[in-house]
Amino acid sequence: MPKGYVIARAVVTNASQWAVYAAEATKAIQQYGGKPLVRGGQMSVAEGEGRARNVVIEFESLDAAKAYAYSPEYAAARKLREGAGHIDIVCVEGA
Questions:
Q1: Is the pLDDT of residue 1 over 90?
Q2: What's residue 50's pLDDT?
Q3: How many CB atoms lie within 10 A of CB 5?
Q4: Whole-angstrom Cα distance, residue 60 to residue 17?
Q5: N or C: where does the chain have the smaller number of CB atoms within 10 Å of the terminal CB?
Q6: DSSP letters spanning the chain
Q7: pLDDT tens for residues 62-78?
Q8: In what order do the strands lie in the sheet with 35-39?
Q9: What does each C-alpha distance from 79 to 14, 16, 72, 76, 95 come to in angstroms?
Q10: Using an 8 Å Cβ cutoff, are 74 and 89 in contact?
């Protein structure tokens, strides 16, 4: 079965508030069996619009990735992020 991934691209405008969100999101990631593959770090924009913060989290399946992304635990974390930046998040099935 293909793996599932949560891919996020973000612009952080309030780093301290974002850190609170990230700590709670990490708890939800662990609860749903996610494995962060990319979380911040150095980057280079090869084409298009780059974002300062990029995250890729691997899950056992697309269903598991969606279970995390739509979970009440992640929803609680997401509320902590309000006003701390802008983010795009997608759930994707691996090849």
A1: no
A2: 86
A3: 20
A4: 30
A5: C
A6: ---EEEEEEEEES-HHHHHHHHHHHHHHHHHTT-EEEEES------SS---SEEEEEEESSHHHHHHHHTSHHHHHHHHHHTTSEEEEEEEEE--
A7: 999 999 999 999 999 99
A8: 35-39, 53-59, 4-12, 85-93
A9: 14, 14, 11, 5, 32
A10: no
Whole-model pTM?
0.92
What is the C-alpha separation between 74 and 14, in angstroms, rounded?
Answer: 19
Q: What is the CA 8 to chain-centroid distance, rounded? A: 5
> What's phi and psi for 78, nearest 5 deg?
-60, -40
pLDDT in tens, 4-27: 999 999 999 999 999 999 999 999
Residue written as token pair 């924009």: 45
Place of tokens 């979970």: 71
Q: How far is residue 64's CA from residue 5's CA, in Å, rounded to a whole number?
A: 9
